[in-house]
Specification:
The chain is mostly helical. It is built from 6 helices and 2 strands. The radius of gyration is 18 Å and the shape is elongated.
């Protein structure tokens, strides 16, 4: 999975934060509180995000309502998986990644491993 571009990430951030379907108009209005962007630009990038599978959409009358296809965490996990895939030695790359975690992140990783182990033994 390729990393999102700057505007793609800005648009996806709205959907992840809101956690609900939204129209392009809502996204444009929110972004334009901080900087000026054309409606057509956001429409184009939103359509691209839909085509890439990052957004789903449902038509209500003449307007598309978009929603994130997966959580921000699922997106981050896919990026990490791709990062591991870039190495010819996945265990070494994973070890390097773990060495860079702080104590809270290590505790969260231990908990996740514990929970995965529990699910696998059922």
């Amino acid at each position: 999975m390729r990393r999102l571009g700057e505007l793609e990430a800005e648009i996806m951030d709205r959907f992840w934060t809101w956690g609900r379907p939204a129209t392009v108009r809502e996204v444009v209005d929110d972004i334009n509180q901080h900087r000026d962007l054309a409606y057509t630009t956001v429409t184009t990038v939103t359509s691209i995000l839909f085509q890439k599978g990052h957004l789903t959409r449902v038509r209500h009358g003449r307007v598309w309502h978009y929603e994130a296809a997966a959580s921000r965490e699922a997106y981050a996990a896919a990026l990490m998986e791709d990062g591991l895939g870039a190495s010819t030695d996945r265990p070494a790359a994973l070890a390097q990644f773990v060495e860079n975690l702080d104590d809270d992140e290590l505790a969260a990783l231990r908990e996740a491993l514990h929970n995965v182990g529990r699910r696998a033994s059922r």
